Amino acid sequence: MRTSELFVPTLREDPGEAEVPSHRLMLRAGMIRKVAAGIYTYLPLGLRVIRKIEQIIREELLRAGAQELLMPILSPAELWRETGRWDFYGKELFRCRDRHDREFCLGPTHEEVVTDLFRREVRSYRQLPLTVFQIQTKFRDEIRPRFGLMRAREFIMKDAYSFDAEMTGAAKSYQAMYDAYHRIFERTGLRFRAVEADTGLIGGTSSHEFMVLADTGEELIVYDPHGTYAANVERAEVPPPTEISIEPLQPLQKVHTPGAKTVEEVCALLGATPDRLVKTLLYTTDRGTVVAVLIRGDHQANEIKIKRYLGVHDLALADAETVQAITHAPPGFAGPIGLSHVRILADHAIRAMRNMIVGANEADAHYINANWDRDFQVEAFADFRQARAGDPTPDRTGTLHCARGIEVGHVFMLGTKYSEKMGATFLDAHGSEHFVIMGCYGIGVGRTVAAAVEQNHDDKGIIWPIPIAPFHVHLLPVTPSDAIAHLTETLYHDLQRAGIDVLWDDRDERAGVKFNDADLLGIPYQIILGDKGLAQGTVDLKERKTGRIEKLSPSSLISSLVDKLSMGAKA
RNA sequence: CGGGGCGUGGCGCAGCCCGGUAGCGCACCUGCUUUGGGAGCAGGAUGUCGGAGGUUCAAAUCCUCUCGCCCCGACCA
User: Fold this and answer.
1) Are residues A270 and A330 in the same domain?
2) What's the ipTM?
3) Number of domains present in the structure of chain A
4) CA distance A413 to A171
5) What is the pTM of this model?
6) Is the CB of A209 less than 7 A from some atom of nucleic acid strand B?
7) Nearest-CA neighbor of A348 among A312, A390, A394, A317?
8) Which bases of strand B sit closer than 7 A to a protein CB?
9) Does nucleic acid strand B have an atom less than 7 angstroms from the CB of A10?
10) What is the CATH number of the domain that holds A371?
């Protein structure tokens, strides 16, 4: 392809609307343009990358035995009412009506539609197992779309659904998708990690997220670099401490702590370290009750774990009035001693502590040398805090490290949640009816593109991994002589004949413009053709990633490139 | 939905406080020169100043409403 024939409107300056690197660079490189908040047009270059990722996904899923189909974007309200999600999904579900005033929504996901298909068409265990997938545009009316393709309202997603007769089969289907996802992300050339994910209130069964590692990622993950354990921090279990404090119990004492509301302020005032202090967090649940959760001063509460323990949907830190009403003190001085009419839960770490510092439920006062059991009662000790670097793995064989990631894939065992609600059943060998066991599996295609840029860029532009690069090679003639024109033309055809995707910058631009645009677009290899090299019978082959330049004769160039590209594609 | 910010030529911005009829850089068009890291000179085209209403002799500028967008938070698997 010649640049003069390719619609790539590059921008010299950073667009004002973009903050994060992927968004900024994709706009500048002429890959995407915004149509409305969270809604984008994919320009030719952006679409090429999307198509490459889609193709890898398609090949691996077909290889894993899944079948491709395509469901509609619009789906009728009655299907969503059957599962209760017409109401439950909330404002994210984009609703509309047709001319007959029938209600529809734009599909944010397709469990309802695919389950409906299943129950109409599948009768017998002999038709199972079945896994289907589609690559299609989804719509979720996000409260706040942001970061370009990272969190868009309209986005391309691959979603797959598995149907099995038994749990063992369902586990196999799940594993097949998990393995396929591994191959898919390996093939993209991105650094990623599969992590255990939270299953939400549905609970129970398996869920894994595939995270592209990037410092700018929205998700925090923990992993054992020497083992197999890896989890989303929301999910990561923290084992109870093994070392219990054996300090002698000191007498409880109230101390004056004027204005010290935060852990830092109290510590500074009392000359203590945060791990001697206990935060008393008051939460309001969706049932209107208030619960106190004790967390060590240097730890962070994990609200998902608290929610799961309590079995509630919503949990929010109590507002100032509630805190005042419960503790009879302004926020910042809550403590477990003398707290009544409130359940008191504590993180495991509290059990190991003695002589701790707690709020005194009184303005400007804390207790020192507080001890559970002696000074206050705890209803239950459990895992309520967020894991952090340095914590042991759940089996205590390793130590956790932290990393940031971008969630690009999610595999989820659904069980019979949808099949029960929608009556999706089959007959087994004995003629008895069962609900089909389902799994669902998503990959955000657009988000994968954004994550790739987020992970692979420098101050000049994008650095595409070879397998998803829009082109393999960027041909850059930089001097306007006839000899160079001739050589370029020859090379262009030879490269194409060798099966290499080549972009030829045939614009009448100065060298600097071409170099800068080439670095911005991030095609893995640049071939620089100029009179300077030609005088010595060489052309420059520059690797975008390292900036390293090799001087090669035009004749050896192609075989050298073919080698590099095939190695890079495997890597 | 709460908080903050921004809408001025294709892009990035100044002008707004203190009202006087719109400017800079880049990009674009023409010509000449130039050509290995975003060229030079000369000439040229491009604006309902997001929209509506109001105040005023006069509004990009002041007031009211409204729409859109960005950021933080809440929210979301």
Assistant:
1) yes
2) 0.92
3) 3
4) 8
5) 0.93
6) no
7) A394
8) 1, 6, 11-13, 25-27, 34-39, 68-77
9) yes
10) 3.90.960.10
